[in-house]
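INTERNAL AUDIT FORM
Audit reference: QA-55
Scope: verify that the stored structure record matches its stored sequence.
Auditor: D.O.
Record contents follow.
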Amino acid sequence: MAASLRLGRQGVLFGLRLSNINKCSRPTHPRQQRVRHFFPSPWLLGVSPVQVQMPALSPTMEEGNIVKWLKKEGEAVAAGDALCEIETDKAVVTMEANDDGIMAKILMDEGSRNVRLGTLIALMVEEGQDWKQVEIPPPEAAAPSASPPATHAAAAPVLSPAAPSPPPPKPATSGPLRLSPAARHILDTHGIDPKLAIPTGPRGLITKEDTLSIKNKSHSMAAPAAPSPVPTPVTAPPPPGSRPNIPPLSVPGKPGAPGTFTEIPASNVRRVIAQRLTQSKTTIPHAYASVDCDMAAVMHLRKDLAKEQIKVSVNDFIIKAAAVTLKEMPEVNVTWSGDGPLALDSIHISIAVATDKGLITPIIKDAANKGVQEISANAKALAQKARDGKLLPEEYQGGSFSISNLGMFGISGFSAVINPPQACILAVGTSRAELRLCEDDQTLRTQQMMTVTLSSDGRLVDDGLASQFLDKFRANLEQPQRMALA
């Protein structure tokens, strides 16, 4: 028993000595240490970024210009902080951050123009990560080149079997759908099922590009095959020395040289104005009606208010009169949708303001329940913000009735183009002195007359309804006390 215990203790001591000898005989080389610590280092693997893409800041926005970055690389960002100022098709809007993090890399510098929606403009990392080691995503792969055209065979053509129809798009995954404002507008306008769209935005957001791709696919599937072009006969060249029947084609070149022109780049605002005007004149049946209003009572009331240091303009009374008339005639306060007319619950008056970049229509909300002095203050503030390009989206979207006043330019009368999807726009000319016969005592008197022209959507406001509206509008303007009682 004692001998076995003694042998066991000696075996344990021998094993410990052997392990120490092995450690001393096998030293660790410095190269092995470097290799061991090389692969798990974070700078080699990089930091996964949070992508910041060009957002849709208005329903009609397709591209934007980056005016100014408000955050620098390496600066901490909290949710709701202003990242940059983006010029949309309407105004300069501040883009806010959706998450907390650190601004790691700015990919689109200040002054970048015509940046398409969904384009990567910056990268962020989460708090605590090294923003200098952010991974920059590679550029998108170029689209595959088109297949070369088939050569013409000398033999008779062989009919190929009909190509199968493309499969329908896969529906989005189940769960609550997240739509951007522009995507929701397109889906509602064209009656597209939102479940057919495949979300490509952050966190499963359905973007405008996703809805446009579904719309284009549906149109391409329904469009018939285009007929083969008819060859045009080749005309013989004119004899030398003869004058051509048509002027030569203009080409870009030196300004002032004959047959040349200078290209002027169109801003986002100008392009959107052109699209909406074309849409309005080609899809809305315009009807026009004019009436003359006596401005004597308004002029007299303005002088009385000026004595009390209350300065209001004639346009402020026109806005109030239009809003009160819409309140008295709610059948005119409507808009057209794909299914038919929609009655509006609110009376928001859009006023046309001319800026250096184009025409924009800020909105005076709930104008029927505001006084003339409050309307005047709102109109001045909105007009200044419009000229500075600082209007917010909610300050120029959603109007129900528009007013365009060119009286300050000496225009006696004109017809304005309806701002879709609104049903009417009122064009206001300048006031002028006219000698008219007074029906009461059959005497001639000088009156201050002003011509207004109503452009109305014939699908919603027919000629009879437009005449009634103008008659009540004239009564409210010629008798301002009626507006206080309405």
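Auditor finding: record pair retrieved intact. The chain has a mean pLDDT of 78.
Action required: none
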